[in-house]
Amino acid sequence: MNGAAVPVDDGRCFACGPYNADGLHMHFEPDGDGKVRAEITLPPRFQGWRGTAHGGIVMMLLDEAMAYACGAIGERAMTASMQLRFRAPVPLGVRLVVTGEVKWKRRHVIALDAAIADARGNVLAGAEGSFISQGPLGKERLGVPDRS
């Protein structure tokens, strides 16, 4: 890992951390091989233009989906690059479905796709990304090693 410290999940992630009072507390579930899915309703505080989510929040949701997809294949990985495409405004106050999927892994590079769709399945935003593996995902959670 080039001598860098291994990333630690201390539960304070803005997107998914249970200990972040200002966070979204997202919860991803497996949705097939190397795929994950979460549902979320964004509150008004994440507004960009009236009634729509800020683009940075949209990007964060897609990034988080890709990170969880890496975890679904047992990899602790970090974002190397992302390419984002907005297809329609992402609305606030309605249920959204956020998905992530591993496309391939070669050595330490993992290629992924992610999408945000409305309840009818219309894709509102999507991304392609490359993540760099930091090694296998351990059983530790929230900075505490698994002792089982």
Structure summary:
The protein is mostly beta strands and 148 residues long.
Structural notes for this entry:
By secondary structure, this protein is mainly β. It has a single domain (29-136), classed as Hotdog Thioesterase (Thiol Ester Dehydrase, Chain A). The chain is built from 1 helix and 6 strands. The chain has one helix at 55-72, and strands at 29-30, 35-41, 75-86, 95-106, 109-118, 123-136. The protein has a 6-stranded antiparallel beta sheet, with helices on one face. The mean pLDDT is 91.
Topology, element by element:
Layout: E1 29-30, E2 35-41, H1 55-72, E3 75-86, E4 95-106, E5 109-118, E6 123-136
Antiparallel strand pairs: 1-2, 2-4, 3-6, 4-5, 5-6
What brief labels describe this structure?
single chain; 148 residues; mainly beta; six-stranded antiparallel beta sheet; 12% helix
Percent in helix: 10-25%
Which structural class best describes the helix and strand composition?
mainly beta
**Percent strand:** 35-45%
Low-pLDDT stretches: none
CATH superfamily: Hotdog Thioesterase
> Major beta sheet, specifics?
6 strands, antiparallel
SSE run? EEHEEEE
What count of structural domains? Answer: 1
Query: C-alpha Rg, in Å?
Result: 15 Å
Indicate the CATH class.
Answer: Alpha Beta
Q: What's the mean pLDDT score?
A: 91
How do the strands line up in the largest sheet? 1-2-4-5-6-3
The CATH architecture assignment turns out to be Roll
Number of E strands: 6
